[in-house]
Amino acid sequence: MSPESARPVRLPRETFASMVLDRLREDIINGTLAAGTQLSEVELATSFGVSRGPIREAIQRLIQEGLLRGEPHRRVSVPVLTKQDIADIYLARTALESAAVQSIIASGKSEETFKELDRNVRAEAAAEAAGDWQVAREYDLEFHTILVAASGSQRLQRMFSTVISETRLCMGALTTEEARHHHKVQSPDEVNHRKISELIRDGDTAGALAALRKHFDDAVATLTSRDGEQKQAPPAG
Q: Where does the signal sequence lie (predicted)?
């Protein structure tokens, strides 16, 4: 073996930052890092076995996504979302997704979009029937991602990527039983994803927008009906 081949492979700094980013994002979304948990660059660097540079890059990206909150001269922390925060997140989603619906129908992409949404709806229904609420939640969020992507607007998609991350933060705070209830309340026959997709297919802009608003109103009602707001975790370290 030549000296060159014996040298350890050095991963680029960007790769380390991406790995840290993905892990932290997942830990925040699934609740491993609870609301209120404070993070330290030094502790994270030690935990991941990397320098503070990749940690800092990952943290800044998560702050931009709304999954971490930073204050001057203080550690960053996982946000404790209030009922007002939740309502505001869904207000933004209503504006963004309503614009996407209008764009889809106006551009004549209703049938094409319906086919993609319908595949998602069928998969979500199968997950719900199997009682797999974690998978059902992923299909729920994917439905809306497909909807915005179908608009073809890069700017809508960039804005949506932030609020959908914050939505994941809301959903990550739900227990299994609450997640089950959330899906049942959020998806009655008259306002479920299938109804929205069918109204888009039919080119019914007013109907699709009304169904979307009702869908989000139900979501906000469920997410804000919990006893109190997200409980704050004790400071780390």
A: none
Percent of the chain residues topping a pLDDT of 90: 46
- Extract the tokens encoding 210: 């009304």
Helices within the chain (DSSP H only): 3-6, 13-29, 41-48, 52-65, 83-106, 110-129, 133-149, 154-172, 176-186, 193-201, 205-223
What's the one-letter identity of residue 102? Answer: Q
How does pLDDT run across 98-134, given as a tens digit for each residue?
Answer: 999 999 999 999 999 999 999 999 998 898 888 888 8
Q: Any bridge partners for residue 85, and if so which?
A: none
Taking Cα atoms as reference points, which of 83, 93, 66, 97 lies closest to residue 223? 83
* Radius of gyration (C-alpha) of the chain in whole angstroms: 20
Phi then psi for 151, rounded to 5 degrees? Answer: -70, -25
Cα 26–chain centre separation = 11
Listing DSSP states for 30-42 in one string gives TTSS-TT-EE-HH
CA nearest neighbour of 200 among 103, 126, 125 = 103
Which residues lie below 8 Å from residue 17, measured CB to CB, with a gap of 6+? 53, 54, 57, 58, 61
Residues 180, 174: Cα–Cα separation, whole Å? 9
* Predicted TM-score of the model (pTM): 0.77
Task: Specify which residues 76 forms β-bridges with.
Answer: 39
Give the Cα separation of 183 and 202 in Å (integer): 25
Q: Indicate whether 6 pLDDT > 60.
A: no
